[in-house]
Fold this sequence. Notes:
- There is one protein chain.
- The chain is an alpha+beta fold and 232 residues long.
- It contains six helices and eleven strands.
- The strands form four sheets. Strands 1, 4, 7, 8 and 9 form a five-stranded mixed sheet that branches. A two-stranded antiparallel ribbon has the order 2-3. A two-stranded antiparallel sheet has the order 5-6.
- A hairpin with a 2-residue loop joins strand 10 (202-209) and strand 11 (212-221).
Amino acid sequence: MIKIWRIWLNTERVDREDHYKITLFSRPRVSIHVDEYIWSFIEENIVKPHKLMRSEKYGYMLNIAFKQFNPEKARYFPPSEYNGPLREGVKVESSVRTYFREDFVGGKVRTTWYSPDAMWTNCGYKVLDVDVVSDNVSENMTPREYAELLFDGIGSALVFNFKKLKREKFDVLKSRIDWGIVESFPFPAPFEEQQYVGDDGEIHVTSWNGRKETTLVGPYSVRELYLEHFGI
Length: 232
């Protein structure tokens, strides 16, 4: 059984003067059951048949991080079948892990990107990072839109870590997703059904000027602030 962690930053620094904005309300309001279904679908059809992720020593964790595309910040990405080929003339070196967005074919206009990385170990878990950046990420994205990005994000991470896997296999499998299941969960999902890491905590950002601490944001209860804003 894999442990699913949904990651979303509730605040974002906007300048060098330590000004922050609350980004809690921009996160996808999709049920975590969508993540569970998409993972189990991939696990049953690809992971288990290829006998992958079967360590008896470690458990497994899926770190799912969706981010809104910002062309000023999203400047570098790793080579991946899901990011497309590099432009002709771009020098490819084995020591280079990431390339400028413009180095990819169509990179100047593309607004969906993936950042697969090597699986790593933490506190008894093998961690698979699923990192998705897209202009489609928002509080209004539908379960189907979310599931499509998530499927490709997991595919990108698995193809990166297991060379026997190819994107073509995932693309064929994607056509078999049961969208009835994806769209059967409540949307917008109740706060308790979203289950992002840190939902039981606070939003509290501080700055230090010498020895003086200045509160910039909060403290606010994540749950109470969210419910006050959306009412769900």
